[in-house]
Amino acid sequence: MAIELVNRLDQEGRAATDDEKRILVKCVGWGGIPQVFAQHPGTDWEVERAELKSLLTDSQYEAARASTLNAHYTSATVISGIYEAAERLGFEHGRVLEPSLGIGHFFGLMPDEMHARSRLTGIEVDPLTARIALKLYPQADIRAQGFEAASLVDGSFDLAISNVPFGDYKLHDPQFNGRNFLIHDYFFAKAIEKVRAGGLVVFITSKGTLDKVDTRLRGYLHERVDLVGAIRLPNTAFKQNANTEVTTDIVFLRKRLEGEQSNGLAWLTLAEHVNRDGISFRINEYFANNPHMMLGHMANSGTMYRRNEPALVPDGRDLAEALREAIASLPQGIYRAVQIPTERESAEVIIAPDDVKENALALHDGVIVIRTAGTLTPVANLADETARRIRGLITVRSAVREVLRTQLADSGDEEIVQARQQLNSIYDRFVSRFGAINESANRRAFRGDPDLPLLCSLEEYDNDTKRASKAAIFRERTIQQAQRPRAAESAHDALVLSLNELGRIDLARMETLLSRPPNEFLPELKGLIYRNPETQQWETDDQYLAGDVRDKLRTARDIAATDPSYHDNVTALEAVQPEDLTASEIDAI
Q1: Residues ≥6 apart with Cβ < 8 Å to 357
Q2: Which residues in 406-434 are b (16+ Cβ under 10 Å) and which e?
Q3: What separation in angstroms does the CA of 523 have from each of 313, 490, 530?
């Protein structure tokens, strides 16, 4: 219903009514029902899968399927508790970033007064989900892209708040590639850059962020932020709304001011914690020192990813009440607001949207602006005729971009032709008023804009005769969509295509290419791929058989004792174990 509704709203070009928003807000993401994308014949989801394919384009369907790993939306109880905690810390309003937006529950459940006085920016990688969020919160700056691709000014937000994605994979961002952060660690690192000194980062994350033995992320953060508190949620906190059981932490960080010393709270290393049954666990020293901040008790109850893994089991308390008790232990008033410019003052400097390039001219609320250093600044002292030329060229640029977009998206012939006709109409209107784009007056007006070459390429211009004719884009399609392979001859070929297209092993994509279920083609890939028992994700041999192979071997042996399907993991890891150094090979430095 949500998909049908958002499609209809887009077709009609209108906002959602309150009743329609009540439908859209019930969409909970694909993380809890990945079965709808399975290709196995005879499954219980064939009708739903067929309906879904009829509602989405191929690219939308693939994007939705790719989001199943992380599209587990947060319960209202937890979000409301987080805002109660933020207010206790001193945050009342400001510039808010949600880098993993979903359909926008963190916006929708924000207290009314805080919402009315805050500027909201949301990032959502799934285009369909971002469209729904935009219909729900049209006043927010919502961007359909990954956090790694978002162009955001450093230090431009007062609060970053989210339930960050989790997974054993990395995102490409030149700023952080050298750090080798996994996706959840990356979200912390990038958010810290985008929040101003004195600002807050409040993220829900897997307990591994605080409990893992590897301290690199915590060390990186500790150099820049203070942990002001953390609350460990029971593994049932997201079961009802997201169909997932995993132990998570709400982590409250404050970015230190320049020259400010750490608050001294210990959270870098692990410490021993003995539960109520006398069983010992290695957990973050913060929770070991503050067990009342765990809303349950530690036990080897397992998670949705792995059996017998330490998890926080609920202790019978109502979750909302337990949250309130823990929030009361957080420090009060540590956040200090900065003066947000009035509307008149802020009109001169506005955070630039991603579709405006650096040094590009654009229109913002009818005013000609230029993007510099990620912000939009009004262009002053323009002659009236120059301003009219710039406005006309911006309109032509928008039209040609739409033509290129429809071709790149492989839209239907009708949509492509309509965009081309619109470009012809807008270009003809511009030329009738200002002459050819390549004429010197027009080139001068748009000088310095990175899209001036694009606009000039729309014409075949003769400098001698000063005559221009339209380029091919006005008459025909100039970009052909690359065709994705529809089939693979072997399991090895399907593996290569999956890695090339998606950068990971995707069994559903391979199943489509081979027209065979995984249980038939996986034996053919023995020795080439392995399922990581910690993440339940398939990895190539060079990925799985690298890194801390000693620890991986211990884990594989533990799992293989109860699950024989991991015996191949044990054998392969045993073969790559490094030899111990002899005494003569060890030097003191």
Answers
A1: 371, 450, 451
A2: bbeeebeeeebeebbeebbebbeebbeeb
A3: 37, 12, 11
Is the confidence at residue 528, as pLDDT, over 70? yes
pLDDT value at 43 more than 80? no
**pLDDT score recorded for residue 389:** 95
Residue keyed to tokens 């997932």 = 244
Per-residue pLDDT at 15: 87
Give the C-alpha distances (Å, rounded to integers) separating 222 from 61, 243, 332: 40, 33, 21
Q: Which amino acid does the sequence have at 96?
A: V
Nearest-angstrom CA–CA distance, 245 and 216: 26
* Residues forming beta bridges with residue 405, ordered by sequence position: none
Q: How many CA atoms lie within 13 A of 386 on its CB side?
A: 13
DSSP secondary structure letter of residue 538: E
**CATH code 3.40.50 for 72-119+152-327:** yes
Q: How far apart are CA 418 and CA 156, in angstroms?
A: 39
Q: What pLDDT shows up at residue 115?
A: 95
d(CA 460, CA 336): 58
Domain boundaries, the chain: 72-119+152-327, 382-474, 491-575
CA dihedral 563, 568, 570, 574 (to 10 degrees): 170
| Each residue's pLDDT tens digit, 218-252 | 999 999 999 999 999 998 876 654 455 788 999 99
Q: Are 474 and 424 in contact (CB under 8 A)?
A: yes
Q: Which amino acid makes up residue 57? A: T
Contact 73, 102 (CB under 8 A): yes
Following CA atoms 276, 280, 283, 287 in sequence, which dihedral angle do they give, to the nearest 10 degrees? 30
Q: How confident is the model at residue 347 (pLDDT cuts 50, 70, 90)?
A: very low
Q: Which two tokens stand for residue 311?
A: 């998890």
CA distances from 411 to 42, 126, 131, 405, 475 (A): 32, 18, 18, 9, 17
**Bigger pLDDT: 5 or 481?**
5
Tokens found for residue 428: 């003809």
Amino acid identity, position 461: Y
Amino acid identity for residue 4 in this structure: E
Indicate the pTM of the whole model: 0.61
Task: Tell me the three state secondary structure of residue 38.
Answer: coil
* Count of Cβ atoms closer than 10 Å to residue 363 Cβ: 15
Strand partners, 470: 459
CB 424 within 8 A of CB 459: no
Residue 188, token pair as written in the block: 């912390």
Give the phi and the psi of residue 128 in degrees, each rounded to 5.
-65, -45
Q: Which two tokens stand for residue 386?
A: 């120059």
Closest alpha carbon to 484 in 474, 475, 497:
497
Q: State how beta strands 270-274 and 248-255 pair.
A: unpaired
Specify the pLDDT at position 11. 82
What value does the mean pLDDT take over residues 346-359? 71
**Helical ranges in 328-383 per DSSP H:** 343-346
Buried/exposed code over 132-148 (b: 16+ C-beta within 10 A; e: otherwise):
bbbbbbeebbbbbebbb
What distance in Å separates the CA atoms of residue 59 and residue 80, rounded to the nearest whole number?
34
Query: What does the block give as tokens for 304?
Result: 């949705």
**Amino acid in the structure at residue 471:** A
Nearest 5°: phi and psi at 229? 160, 165
Return left, alpha or beta for 11; rule: phi > 0 is left, psi -120 to 50 is alpha, else beta: alpha
